[in-house]
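User: When convenient, might I ask for sequence and structure tokens for a protein?

AI:
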Amino acid sequence: MSDALRQRAHPPVVVQVRGEAALFTRPELRVERVSYPVMTPTAATGVLDAIFWKPEFRWVAVKIEVLRPIRQFSLRRNETSDLPSLADAVGKGRRVDTVASRDQRSALCLRDVEYRIHAQVELAGHADKRDVAYRDQFRRRVNRGACYQQPFLGAREFPASFFPPDAREPIDVTEDLGVMLHRVHYGPPARFDWFTARLEKGVLHVPARGIPGGVEQMAEVV
């Protein structure tokens, strides 16, 4: 059995997150922001990184449970119209003048959200500990309420609280969600993986592998 398969054989770590609002932006809508109706895998791993991050491993979301009814609201937000590409931001470190490029746009957000995140630890080649050590550290930090930075739900103005999971059932909602970002490979060069997402009785199952492609190729994935 490979190391990756052996790590996936362990039960995932689980944490519950809650917030007054969230914005998980659909990337195909570039002018006005519209949220997916549920948390995305990349947003989930962002929450986990805020709680516990080390370069020796990365988080892989395997399942996200929706625990509260899906409610939406509209919001006007100040954004910048000068958006560097991921390659420019990571590779060249290009700075953005947010004052000169400020623009006000509408966003369709989510209200009063709560999710249960299930995730695995995927070790890097240079890791000097077994994955169980990082899993135990994560659980201790969740129990203490410790984090490296404040977790947020898709946008930094929407902070999230986190705590050990309870036994509540997910909401009874099933719907197709369209193409969703699976993983970002920061490179260089930067690359994206996608998958066709579906909420099944309140549960979003994340496949082990995504389909490579850029934002402009999303229509070919469906």
